[in-house]
Specification:
Length: about 240
């Protein structure tokens, strides 16, 4: 296992349940963190909890190209390299086709597919210069197995998986690793605004989901964990 001490890590979606717990674990392990999120107040709270300076945070909408360009500039003002990019940002819109509208569909694609594309364009070149790095995305099980009412969400996550698999082919002559984490149901704020009857008490908790990411950040230099699947016992879809 590789040590996390001194690693330079960017976490997008650090204000979410999984992102904030991941930040805490990585900071305790000695990593240098740069945190982003959409909610500035929540971001500062997470940064304070993790002992991350204000200079190493940036509140933005990662589906905005100009904002991601600014993020890149601010990141490299604080940290010289990027060892690990963890994309824990995204949105979940679960609606039937009868209630799903064009705006819902496009928002899903913007946050869950277009935003990761923007992050790749901004930060992959720095990894390619050094020919090493790790990129972790979280497609979730709905990026592998569809569910009724998840047409927009699954479309965006299937697209994310396909994009990263294609990019992996481009990087075979480097030591840049790409890992997709397929999480099952996680009891996080993701479900707060979703009108769906679910048993959150039987889901994976955010701490355990974060530990999976923490583990993946330490995968050995001689190999790569291309995929990890973590699901609740009562709802194994894969």
């Amino acid at each position: 296992m590789e040590t996390l001490k001194g690693k330079n890590i960017l976490i997008t979606g650090a204000t979410g349940g999984i992102g904030s717990e991941t930040a805490r674990l990585l900071k305790v392990s000695g990593a240098n963190l740069f945190l982003t999120g959409r909610n500035a107040a929540k971001l500062q709270q997470v940064a304070s909890d993790c002992n991350v300076t204000t200079e190493n945070t940036f509140a933005l909408d990662i589906s905005n190209g100009a904002a991601v360009d600014e993020l890149k500039e601010k990141y490299f003002q604080q940290l010289p390299t990027i060892d690990i990019l963890i994309n824990a940002a995204g949105i979940g819109i679960i609606k039937t086709m009868e209630t799903l509208d064009e705006q819902d569909f496009l928002r899903s694609l913007n946050y869950n597919l277009y935003a990761p594309f923007l992050l790749l364009k901004a930060f992959l070149p720095a990894m390619k210069e050094l020919k090493k790095g790790l990129i972790i995305n979280i497609p979730g099980v709905l990026g592998k197995v569809p569910m009724a009412g998840a047409a927009a969400y699954s479309a965006s996550k299937y697209g994310l998986v396909g994009m990263m698999q294609s990019v992996r082919e481009e990087l075979k002559r480097t030591d840049i690793r790409i890992t997709n984490l397929f999480l099952g149901g996680v009891d996080s704020p993701f479900w707060d605004n979703i009108d769906l009857r679910v048993q959150r008490d039987k889901m994976i908790n955010t701490e355990e989901a974060a530990k999976a990411i923490w583990f993946l950040c330490q995968q050995p230099a001689s190999g790569v964990v291309s995929e990890m699947v973590l699901q609740p016992f009562n709802h194994q879809a894969i």
